[in-house]
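pasting for the record
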Amino acid sequence: MIGANRAFIGWLALALAQGMSGCARAPQELAISGPTMGTTYSIKVASAPEGVDAHALRVAADQVLDRIDRSMSGYRADSEISRFNASSSTDWFEVSADLATVVDYAFHVSRESGGAFDITVGPLVAAWGFGARGEPIDLPDEAQLAELRSQVGYQKLEARVQSPALRKSAASVQVDLNAIAPGYAVDLMAERFRAMRLKHFMIDIGGEIRAQGRNARGEAWRIAVERPIDAEPEPYAILSLDDASVTTSGEYRHYFDRNGQRYSHTIDPRTGRPVEHSLASVVVVGSTAMEVDAWTTAFNVLGTQAGHELALKRGMPVMFIDVQDGELHSVTTPQLDRYLSSTQPSRK
């Protein structure tokens, strides 16, 4: 499901937005929430202008979410992306500007990450039991992986932003936008809110978060990053955000064990196999939610060492949290430190 592996950051974000003390919502704050994209959304608005109430917020949010659902949902047969996937044509397939924009940015992250991010990886994800069919009875063997890998690869796709359209080089190519569409939805919603003259808000769709302006207490929005362990949620680090987006991708709740071996839900498109490194969670801050949505997946595939090197090279605000001998250890880029309010880097 879209956003399912990142929803924990949203729960903690909301708790911190209310002070982590159980206190009532601050005066003049509007809040709405609901289901979407196989996960949930939550919106908080501080200092709303006259004429903007909870009903107006919900109408605006639902319009954006419906727009994304009709374009990018893999769970409805009439969506643009489902119709493209079902097509056997290798000619240009006309799509909306939204869809072309998202696929084009996905290509950018794929190239910059050396293929660690790939929106065609769906068949491999399903083969390892992390698709809609659930855990497989038999794990894929080498022959099956070779066959599936022949169907995967972002190089088998093209996107045209002007006169928006997509094209695939083989009929078998499938596109899954779960790792980027929620972020784009957040960006569209933020754009819609700014058009409504809203200056202070926080949007969370399945853990893809945009924080704009200040909360109802006049403070920067405080976003918590959960400790990446199999236990009740509690903060590992606190970020202070104003005019920024953040998300987290973690390994510790989405896996299965088979014959004493743990299989991660994150599949490396380059090998066709679940990742096996010690990275438990990665946090990315950026200017757009689409950007951080895609890059958390890329860094989660790369792991701490390669991911940190790339983040430093690109000057990106990123935190990597590893599990080493049962303890948590984090490494951050210098750009992340300015958002960091507090952290507990070595707690078990």
